[in-house]
Amino acid sequence: MTTMPFSLWLSLAAVCAMGAMSPGPSLALVLRHTLGGGRAPGVVAGLSHALGVGFYALLTVWGLGALIVRQPALFQVITWGGAAYLAWLGIKALRAGRAGALEAAAVPTTRRQAAREGVLVALGNPKLILFFIALLSQFVTPDMSVAAKAVIVLTAMIIDGGWYALVALGLSHSRVLPWLQARSHWINRITGLLLLGLALRVVAGPLG
Q: Could you tell me the sign of the dihedral formed by the alpha carbons of 29, 33, 34, 39, in that order?
């Protein structure tokens, strides 16, 4: 059973951060609850979203491990499918311009509503499975230990929850959102290029 080298974990943390920072329904969720209820509901929405992300990451890690051992050809096909999905996300972000999740409107909200919706948005987005297949296929190996798999899942959860909590804290200051909205086209372009680059990295094969 193998463990994960620190250098490989840094690569994992980087790609998880890239995924968390991608504009989409999760960011829109945190924006809505932060703008509608303030800092606390926004943070709760972000942290509860991370629980759903952790569930999908757990399913993906164990599923990929089994596929690598039993069906390597199928694993390769699924990995390429995940890479194609990343490329599609990248092209979509490049074409988004100034539109997107940064235009989310405020809605009246409570912490309980934020917690419920955070989990539901994550679990109701099966595309997360494709996203994690593309990302985690670079890190899962047939002889990976349970501890190493747990590290992967916890890393995905902590980075996702930490990022959205920071978003909620930042947006609780009224000057931050207008600044981001004015630069949303650059955010979309940078995100799109990073996702396309990650798709190419996935096609190239596992990291060392």
A: negative
